[in-house]
């Protein structure tokens, strides 16, 4: 398997799953909120490590607490973080992401206040130790020099470049990469209505590169260096759960196949298959396992004593509280009968392991973990709605049928 170095952003993704896409000025309650390590290259590297490669990132990191959180996240994704350029004055780049539970779409608002990776930092890294270099098409001023160095010092290692947005001067870099990934946003910015038209033009700028342009539901267009443009339709899926990182997953699967000397057509097919697989689940974990017909709520290994876990559930009006209890796993709808708010609305749900209760963070109603009955607080004797669950041999917890 290959040693792959990705050069790009590491981002803190704050993901709110909402029942629908909010209207302007609407006040909307999200079903769930979670934090993930994000950024295109970080996501692709996570998928590449699942595909069995040795992934390393070259990125910038801020001096705030979230930076530490991100580094730990990268490590837990089996991504080597030895090449991180730290900026004490900078803050962690953050994406605020609305995920529409109805469609699985993701809308990203990105905030950045961190210097870009410097040319000098890149120049000191021994890139010859890697089998593949994958760049994000940003930071053009420094990227130009980085690609020059890579072209000069690497003899047989492929270079790939992802072009997500139009940036001044980026076109001049195209011939430097062996594989170019274009997004449909870029194609649209350039005034093209499909990937084929874009690639016709790019072929002239970079005749020796493999070109790929992905276009959501319309599939992908691609062109092996110097050959005809071809089209790969999407793999249809029964339900779209989450599209965040689908493009990054596609890129990873293409790099994986090409690094094994497979033809571009096979690589693009593998990319679209894995991207489709990704869209059927939340997040990027365990992408190589079979999709189960039903999505588990969680696995018992994720539950710890005296702590609740709140998980989304597309089939119920509320998220679900899971907790390990003396008599087994308990599951309740995350909705306080007092004022119809999630129990973790104000803070986390505190558990008292001695009294065997858990507390709504909004108005301090205490509920028995055993039966969900309120034993103290503003909705005395009211009950949380029990969620029927079943657990399979692997410990996956499902909504009972
Ligand atoms: C998804 C993603 C997110 C990140 C954003 C950055 O492709 O990489 O993880 O926040 O895009 O543009």
UniProtKB/TrEMBL annotation:
CDD domains from the UniProt entry: Rieske (cd03467)
InterPro entries in the cross-refs: Carboh/pur_kinase_PfkB_CS (IPR002173), Ketohexokinase-related (IPR052562), PfkB_dom (IPR011611), Ribokinase-like (IPR029056), Rieske_2Fe-2S (IPR017941), Rieske_2Fe-2S_sf (IPR036922)
Pfam families for the chain: PfkB (PF00294), Rieske (PF00355)
Keyword Transferase part of the UniProt annotation: yes
EC annotation from Swiss-Prot or TrEMBL: 2.7.1.184
Residues annotated as domain Rieske: 294-398
An MF annotation (GO) of this entry: kinase activity
Keywords per UniProt: 2Fe-2S, Iron, Iron-sulfur, Kinase, Metal-binding, Transferase
Transmembrane segments: none
The name this protein goes by in its record: Sulfofructose kinase
Biological source species: Hydrogenovibrio crunogenus
Gene that this polypeptide is encoded by: yihV
